[in-house]
Design brief:
Layout: H1 2-25, H2 30-49, H3 83-100, E1 107-108, E2 115-116, H4 128-133, H5 138-163, H6 168-179
Antiparallel strand pairs: 1-2
Helix pairs in contact: 1-2, 1-5, 2-5, 2-6, 5-6
Length: about 180
């Protein structure tokens, strides 16, 4: 049931994004919408439909207090992706807890570093996709927010290419190229 609610949230957000784009720039063909929706589904569909998380949380199990007692630590799949468990998820958790407590997430006093939270690009509490995905725990909301960002990137590249006079097929290639670029992923 929980997984179905997450899929419904992801699909609802995608529908809102596409609907806002249509209100702004005019109608999109069904085929174009389907091909643009394929971008986040390819990248984040497995994490939403499956039981796992797309955040590499295995890294934190290398160190106490998270390391399993009496046994070997799990093998880390990618040591380069430590920013998700060490920065993104904690900041998103702080933002979520501030909102749930009825306070504005303007400052991360919990960190003891005097760091702004509202102006932090990692927590991004004012980004529309981030705010909507804060309804879920951070490790579950992250793939949804990332999928929405991927869809916005693909849609933006498509609309820009169309505005520049590129054919619909060429605009779809541009959408895939930009949304799958290293910067986006």
């Amino acid at each position: 049931m929980e997984r179905a609610a997450e899929l419904l949230l992801a699909a609802s957000g995608a529908w809102v994004i596409l609907r806002l784009a249509q209100l702004w720039r005019g109608p999109l063909r069904w085929r174009e919408k389907g091909l643009l929706l394929l971008v986040p589904v390819l990248f984040f569909g497995g994490g939403l439909a499956g039981g796992g998380s797309q955040a590499d949380l295995d890294y934190v199990y290398q160190f106490p207090p998270y390391r399993p007692a009496g046994g070997p630590a799990p093998v880390v799949r990618n040591r380069l992706l430590t920013d998700i468990p060490l920065q993104v998820l904690p900041f998103r958790h702080l933002v979520r807890e501030h909102f749930r407590g009825g306070t504005w997430p303007h400052w991360a006093h919990e960190l003891g570093t005097g760091q702004p939270l509202a102006g932090n690009a990692t927590s991004a509490p004012l980004a529309p996709a981030q705010v909507a995905s804060l309804l879920l725990p951070p490790e579950r909301g992250l793939p949804i927010a990332a999928g929405w960002h991927q869809l916005i990137a693909a849609l933006g590249a498509f609309l820009l290419a169309r505005a520049l006079g590129v054919s619909r097929a060429g605009a779809l290639v541009a959408a895939y190229a930009f949304s799958a670029s290293l910067f986006q992923t």
